[in-house]
Amino acid sequence: MLRRKNSGLSLESIARAGFWLAAAFAVVMAVMPTPPRVPLDRYGDKAEHMIAFATLALLAGFAFPRMPRLRIAERLSFLGALIEVVQSIPALHRDCDIRDWVADTLAIVVTLAVVNLVRPAGRR
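Structure (tokenized):
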């Protein structure tokens, strides 16, 4: 028997769209030679990194519920490292800082741990 798909929007589909939009936004902001100033500037660069990657981790945790959390953490951490490598390109006039990647990874791990408490992996 064929099952009819629910035509309504699910939390997963909304989170997935939000994740890809947030990821694109984060990458664009990270590689812009002179990104716009944001209210978080007074808290420092690390706070911006942690908020960006905590947001990505939160969205990914709900967007990809059947993906192992460790895999999500690994791939988001790799994205953070890749951004730092791209920022080392002299033409961008940005700084490559391993501490930014550490802040990204810390935010990812903490956020996914909280997501795992709220929504265990594999849950629909």
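The CA atoms of residues 3 and 97 lie 51 Å apart. The radius of gyration is 16 Å.
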